[in-house]
Amino acid sequence: MTISRVKGNRISACPLFLDPGRMPGWIDPLAWFSFLFFIFFLPFRGLLGSILSTPRSLLLFFMVLGLARSAAQGRWVRTRLDWPVWTYSLVMVASALLSVDTRYSISSLLHDLVPFLIIFHAGACLMVNASRMRQFIWTLLICSAVVLFMGFFPPTIQDGRLQGIFPVATRYGKYLDLLIPVTVSSCLNARGAGFAVPVFILAIGQVIALAWNATRGAIIGIFSSLLFISIFQRKILLALAFTLMVGGLFLAIWPATNYDLNRVEGLFRSPARLLASDPALRDRRGYFKTSIAFVRQRPVLGWGYGRRIARYASAVHDKRWYLKRGLNPLKWHAHNMILEILLEGGVLGLVAALWIAWTYVSVVHELLARQRISCNRPIVLGFIGAIVAISIHSMVSVPQWSNTLLATSYISVTVGYFSKKYSAGCGQPI
User: Fold this and answer.
1) What's the pLDDT at 5?
2) What is the pLDDT of residues 268-305, one digit of tens each?
3) Quick one: 319 exposed, middle or buried, by C-beta within 10 A (0-12, 13-18, 19+)?
4) Cα first-last separation, the chain
5) Is 359 helix (H, G, I), strand (E, B) or coil?
6) Which terminal Cβ of the chain has fewer Cβ within 10 Å, N or C?
7) Is 251 exposed, middle or buried (0-12, 13-18, 19+ CB in 10 A)?
8) 326 exposed, middle or buried (CB, 10 Å; 0-12, 13-18, 19+)?
């Protein structure tokens, strides 16, 4: 059923459920709090089930309702990333249809790509004012505090990794890649000791968790992102000072024979020896060689969309194929985001992904060049720094999909909320 609405001298047909006058006002706050709940529970996969479990599906559905209401009321936020993101999505749909395992890839479209698009547009369209931005940041901080506490309880370390009730969130440092820069930026943006002190303590705790994990890719990413924040923020030394302090403290108290200490010290004392003899890096060189061999076989659209497509590609070849080339099958993924994109979407997928990256960098460059963002500059830098950290870490690993969705929300906030709000003025301080 449709109704006619008059726009000036034109009459346009609109579906009844998209008529702004008939859509209830509670849809917007429902969609917004669904977005916050979805972001909050990303690290706790077991609590709400998989991405398309009933609770998560309901949250995504409510977000879609909010997006539909925004579109019907003319409040849809168009960003410069829309075309690159949708181009990438269409390439991955084509890859899924031509996949080595079509059933798995189409299932991955529903589990991964659909939530990715919803989160991307929800972050841009539903974040309409500074109050919601504060709620989003508080959601991140409270969630990270819960993750941090649960990571230390019970306090055990297994295979050089911090374990606890929810070990996945902190186990490989990718979640901390995304949270430490935001926590530090929130501390820099604080306008009172009552907020700054607990956030500062939280930031120190996050760095301690990262040090205990001894994930070198995450450590390099965090130092790089904090250096990025320091360069663009007037309080130049604060972000690096507490990181060096906590990192130095833990290096000092660890036993000389501790596995974690040796992993971190090797990164700084003898990088050449580390590159040649470190087991983890040696394994990665093997992953890279196998991934490149797979990409050469299907270069245009890859092997099919899906985070585990490498396992399906590996199953295509027999043992003789690997022995002849001196390769090994991929158990999980390529351990490099660029190679992973090539496996999933081929050269076309990589071109689309680079288009997204280039557009994001250009938006960030323009945003940082504006003097109008000075009132909330640390928050902007926190989101950007988090993307820098996880991007560097992704050169030797692949982030879990929950962390990819969290990074997507950061990107949509940067190119959506901040770019629009500060086009005419500073906007309201967060």
Assistant:
1) 42
2) 555 555 555 566 677 777 788 888 888 888 888 888 89
3) exposed
4) 43
5) helix
6) N
7) middle
8) exposed
Give 249's contacts (C-beta < 8 A, 6+ positions apart).
Answer: none
Q: Which of 72, 33, 134, 127 is nearest to 415 (CA)?
A: 127
pLDDT above 60 (res 18): no
3-class SS at 15? strand
- The answer to whether residues 1 and 17 touch, using CB atoms and an 8 Å cutoff, is no
Helices and strands (H, E) in the chain, number of each type: 21, 4
- Alpha-carbon distance 419 to 34, whole Å? 24
Q: What is the pTM of this model?
A: 0.81
Residue 205 confidence (pLDDT) above 90? no
For 278-303, give the DSSP string: -HHHHHHHHHHHHHHHHHHHSTTT-S
Identify the bridge partners of residue 12 per DSSP, sorted by sequence position: 5
Instruction: Please give the residue that has the higher pLDDT: either 166 or 391.
Output: 391
On whether the CB atoms of residues 196 and 187 are closer than 8 A, the answer is yes
CB-CB neighbours of 110 under 10 Å: 12
CA separation for the pair 37, 47 (Å, rounded) = 12
Q: Cα–Cα distance between 48 and 55 in angstroms, integer?
A: 6
User: Encoding tokens for residue 295?
Assistant: 């990409």
Q: Does 137 have pLDDT greater than 60?
A: yes
Please tell me the total number of residues recorded for the chain in this structure.
Answer: 430
Residue 239 has pLDDT above 50, yes or no: yes
Q: What is the DSSP string of 43-106?
A: S-HHHH-STTSHHHHHHHHHHHHHHHHHHHTT-----TTHHHHHHHHHHHHHHHHT-TTHHHHH
In the block, tokens 């820098």 appear at 388
How many C-beta atoms lie closer than 10 Å to residue 303's C-beta? 26
Report how far apart, in Å, the C-alpha atoms of 264 and of each of 227, 240, 335 are: 19, 18, 20
Tell me the average pLDDT across 309-329: 81
3-state SS assignment for residue 32: helix
Q: How far is CA 375 from CA 114, 261, 370, 380, 412, in A?
A: 35, 40, 11, 10, 20
Given the structure tokens 């660890």, which residue do they identify?
254
Rounded Cα distance, 397 and 406, in Å:
17
Closest CA to 148 of 222, 195, 211, 230: 211
